[in-house]
Amino acid sequence: MVAMTATETHHPFDSLDRSSKTFERMAEPFRSELKLHCYRMMGSLHEAEDLVQDTFLRAWRSFASFEGRGSFRGWLYQIATNACLNAIASRKYRQRFLPDLRFPASAQLPDGTPANDVEWLEPYPDSDMAGILDETQNPEAHYAAREAVQLAFVAAIQQLPPRQRAALLLCDVLGWGVAEAATLLGGSTASINSVLQRARATMAKSHRDDGSSTVSTPGPAQQELLKRYLNAWEELDIDKFVALLKEDATYTMPPLGQWYVGRDSIRTFFEWAWKDYGGYRLLPVAANGQPAFAAYFRSRAELDAPLAAHSIHVLTLAESGVSALTLFVRPDAPRIFRAFGLPLTIADDISH
Q1: What is the sign, positive or negative, of the torsion defined by CA atoms of 131, 78, 143, 138?
Q2: Residues 311, 235: contact at Cβ < 8 Å?
Q3: Alpha carbon distance 178, 120 (integer Å)
Q4: Alpha-carbon Rg of the chain, whole angstroms?
Q5: How far is CA 299 from CA 6, 253, 270, 293, 323, in A?
Q6: DSSP assignment string, 71-110
Q7: 255 prior amide bond cis, ω within 30
Q8: Phi/psi of residue 225, each to 5°?
């Protein structure tokens, strides 16, 4: 047998500097996309933040053994996906919901008590996705980049079993090959194909494209609709607000379990809800690749008080109006405002 020379046995990663600076230089460019991947897996911005930190810690501890047989990015995704699967397995509740996926539409006014026996989906700030959604779409991906972050999509994939969820995200969102996903998840290509087909069938039933627009930079007509929406809230004008809704619009407000469908039901709710408010100020933001607002309020009894964090509004727009409206409300709102980098109070006069 002929002995292999040093040149023949050398691997480009053999001489890789394994310092913390090298790891940071290699890993940091993937932080944002890994955090988004963890969010899609978990349905929680806060869990995603913790898990991407855990991923980087685990990866640094194993960096010395990284041999470069696959891509460094793929290696990080393997660690992140397994961290998510372990976290889901340790949960009391393995799914996160929006109210319309958990309860029937309500005909009663809420009592203000959160449904604490449910884990609720959380919104994701577009500021944490800078550059990710605008990159060239992977031709192997089944879902467009923006569709795969919108609230309805993330809510739908939360209903998949964890392994199906991971396979769908890897193959149909990130555009990985089935063989790559099988290596990451463990199992044969045939078994992952089977898992993937079941996930696709479930998504085809639960997540249908209704033609609504969820882009974060709407066209002129939608910009005008958003301006009218802001004005309706700041003027507490129920007629202007309801006129912006599609006839079959839905309104959800986690962590409250009640939700409403149709203009009449939504009008009844807001006529009741707005009566104690002295005013609102809405600041445009963006969440889940969709138009959104951060709403601040003061009560009628405290008209001189600073405006306080009330809710994050995430809107789904159709050509004819708002087709879905989700408000992430108190008592969870302050925690979500902080995650969006927003102050909990603002000093502003309401002069309507």
Answers
A1: positive
A2: no
A3: 31
A4: 23
A5: 76, 19, 15, 19, 28
A6: -HHHHHHHHHHHHHHHHHHH-SS---B-GGGTSPPPSS--
A7: yes
A8: -60, -45
Going from the C-alpha of 89 to that of each of 94, 95, 96, 170, the distances in angstroms are 7, 11, 13, 19
C-alpha 29/C-alpha 22 separation (Å) is 12
Q: Where are the alpha helices (DSSP H) in 118-188?
A: 151-157, 162-168, 178-185
Beta carbons of 131 and 32 less than 8 angstroms apart = yes
Q: Which residue has the tokens 């467009």?
A: 144
CA 114 from chain centre, in angstroms, equals: 21
Three-state secondary structure call for residue 166: helix
Who contacts 49 (Cβ-Cβ below 8 Å, separation ≥6)?
35, 339
Residue matched to tokens 């199992």:
187
Angle at which helix 45-62 crosses helix 20-27, to 10 degrees, equals 140
CB hemisphere CA count around 134 (13 angstroms) = 8
pLDDT tens per residue, range 163-222: 999 999 999 999 999 999 999 999 999 999 999 999 999 999 887 555 454 444 678 889
> What domains are defined for the chain?
220-346 (3.10.450.50)
Q: In this structure, are residues 288 and 150 in contact, taking their beta carbons and an 8 Å threshold?
A: yes
Q: Between the CA of residue 6 and those of 2, 9, 14, 37, 65, what are the distances in Å?
A: 13, 5, 12, 40, 20
Output the CA angle 124-128-133, nearest 5 degrees: 90
Tokens of 191: 């078994």
What pairing do the DSSP bridges indicate for beta strands 321-329 and 307-318? antiparallel
* ∠ Cα 132 50 40 (to 5°): 45
Distance, in Å, from the CA atom of 315 to the CA atom of 251, rounded to the nearest integer, reads 10
- Angle at CA of residue 57, ends 53 and 62, nearest 5°: 145
pLDDT digits (tens, 9 = 90+) for 262-275: 999 999 999 999 99
Q: Give the closest residue to 107 by CA, choosing from 242, 261, 248.
A: 261
* Whole-model pTM over 0.85: yes
